[in-house]
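Incident review: delayed structure delivery

Summary: a single-chain prediction request sat in the queue longer than the usual turnaround. Root cause was a stuck worker, restarted by the on-call engineer. No data loss occurred. The affected request and its eventual output are reproduced below so the record is complete for anyone auditing the incident later.

Affected input:
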Amino acid sequence: MYAVEKYARESGLDARLLELVRLRASQINGCAYCIDMHTKDARAHGETEQRLYALSVWREARSLLPGNAPRWNGPRP
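Output delivered after worker restart:
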């Protein structure tokens, strides 16, 4: 996990987007502690409430993503 975190920090991605990725991973993992932590971190980085609320339904809320992020054309889980 440390290597992944180091790579993510050095990737050049916006801090708000990184927090959304961390939050989504926590939602998928079902970790309430991590969801709470990453939600607070995302707010501290200036993330909006609207985008935090829409994260769990990101496929239907693409207009809320930066630059209307490209569609994922791979298999759906």
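Verification: The mean pLDDT is 81.
Action items: add queue-age alerting; document worker restart procedure.
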